[in-house]
Specification:
The protein is an alpha+beta fold. The protein is 44% helix and 12% strand. The structure holds protoporphyrin IX containing FE.
Length: 416
């Protein structure tokens, strides 16, 4: 039997993800090394790329901790930095349940439905401006503008703060792309901000903004997410400043770039598949099931991380307590053993099967229904207005191994 040639790759190289979606590497890993020990400048970490194994890690949250080493960074984070920046996504049960429960009721499909009218107004305003320009960047002129406005609304921020909120929110999300981040992660300049939420230079001003509304809502709640944050208790106490800031920042970061990129990558996938475009652009075609398939293909999260709390195994591979396990969501969503023709859009696939939202575990995305609604409404309102839509130049990808997405996507839209 011929020896298997391992491709040369480095999944820590953000530039790799700027050049292309590296499905060839993930396919090799899924076939030859589904639980792969990836080297780094410390003791290396495990890469899990197969659908069943990612689901297994997500489900076994008692063994694979989000709290022990955090979940948002592959590299080992200094313990005091981890503590200073901890939000509820980086907690384990039972603490995680205490945190998540008060918010969960605000993110059910029924709760989310109350924002639909406002969302439709936001989308119409964004589309009106885009159609005036005609030649647009789909990311900047459409996809980036919707999720952050929706977030401002559901958090309960005053509309006069929105413009600044949008700018600061944007500066917090991509920290590995020198064209976007003010200080690239790992640079000496970024070091000064390492104790702030997400290590971001924009965090102090953003959180001060959130705090104004939180202060006003304490003891005087309204129907919004910041009222919950302002008045919830953990361990019998109202939240202190650090918890307020870190968790306000979590909502801003988690709900912004992800949804934007599902919109943008979704359109790119449709451009690359005439049959799917013809099907999806029909009136009534953007059902929840079809939108879910678009999100599978347009998975905006490359990975999250866990830390093993005890010796265990994944697919027979021994994992030692303390080792890092990185689960590659977008790769699992293209696993040919889980999805027939995984690189093809097929709107007849079952809803809720994919892992883009981290299905199966306790950290399953709380914003799932909101994100689906935003994407559905965008396409429901965009397609009927279009005489034509075409890509007018090459797209440019984000320099990030964390967010799968585009930073430039030139498109011409012509109204009917
Ligand atoms: C297409 C859009 C989105 C995608 C693909 C996505 C993806 C994810 C994933 C994979 C996780 C799980 C992380 C883990 O297992 O460690 C997660 C968690 C989370 N997401 Fe989303 N997300 C999206 C939109 C949103 C929106 C719109 C919001 C909020 C308004 C949001 C808020 C959150 C929060 C707060 C968590 C942490 C939940 C917990 O730890 O219990 N996300 N998201």
């Amino acid at each position: 039997m011929a020896a298997i040639e391992a491709p040369e790759f480095n999944l820590l190289d953000h530039q790799l993800f700027a050049q292309r979606e590296p499905w060839d590497i993930f396919e090799w890993l899924q076939r030859e090394a589904p639980v792969y020990r990836h080297p780094d400048d410390a003791d290396g970490f495990w890469c899990v790329t197969k659908y069943d194994d990612v689901l297994d890690v997500l489900k076994r949250a008692k063994v694979f901790s989000s709290q022990a080493g955090g979940s948002a960074r592959i590299g080992r984070v200094e313990p005091d930095v981890l503590e200073a920046r901890r939000n509820f996504m980086e907690t384990d049960a039972p603490l995680h349940n205490e945190w998540r429960k008060p918010f969960a009721r605000d993110f059910t499909p029924k709760s989310i439905a109350r924002y639909e009218d406002q969302l439709r107004v936001i989308v119409d305003q964004v589309l009106d401006e885009a159609f005036e320009k005609q030649d647009i960047c789909f990311v900047h002129d459409i996809a980036a503008l919707i999720p952050i406005r929706v977030l401002g609304t559901i958090l309960g921020l005053p509309p006069e703060q929105f413009d600044r909120f949008i700018e600061l929110g944007d500066r917090m999300i991509i920290d590995s792309d020198p064209e976007i981040a003010i200080h690239v992660v790992g640079s000496p300049e970024a070091e000064a901000f390492k104790y702030l939420p997400f290590g971001s230079e924009a965090a102090a001003e953003l959180c001060a903004m959130g705090r104004q509304t939180i202060d006003a809502r304490r003891g005087n709640p309204k129907e919004d997410v910041l009222s919950i944050l302002a008045n919830m208790e953990i361990g019998g106490h109202l939240l202190g400043d650090r918890d307020l800031d870190n968790n306000f920042a979590l909502f801003v970061v988690a709900g912004n770039e992800t949804t934007r990129q599902s919109m943008a990558l979704g359109l790119l996938a449709l451009f690359n598949d005439d049959r799917a475009m013809a099907e999806f652009s029909q009136p009534g075609a953007a059902t929840d099931q079809a939108v879910d398939e678009l999100i599978r293909i347009a998975s905006p999260v490359w990975h999250f991380r866990r830390t093993a709390l005890e010796d265990t195994e994944i697919r027979g591979q021994e994992i030692k307590a303390g080792e890092r396990v990185v689960i590659w969501f977008a790769a699992a969503n293209r696993d040919a053993e889980a999805f027939e023709n995984p690189h093809v859009l097929d709107f007849s696939r079952k809803k809720d099967e994919h892992l883009a939202f981290g299905r199966g575990g306790p950290h399953y995305c709380i914003g799932t229904h909101l994100a689906r609604l935003e994407i559905r409404v965008l396409y429901e309102q965009l397609f009927p207005r279009l005489k034509s839509i075409e890509q007018t130049g090459p797209e440019r990808r984000l320099v990030s191994n964390f967010t799968n997405g585009l930073k430039h996507f030139p498109v011409r839209i012509t109204a009917k």
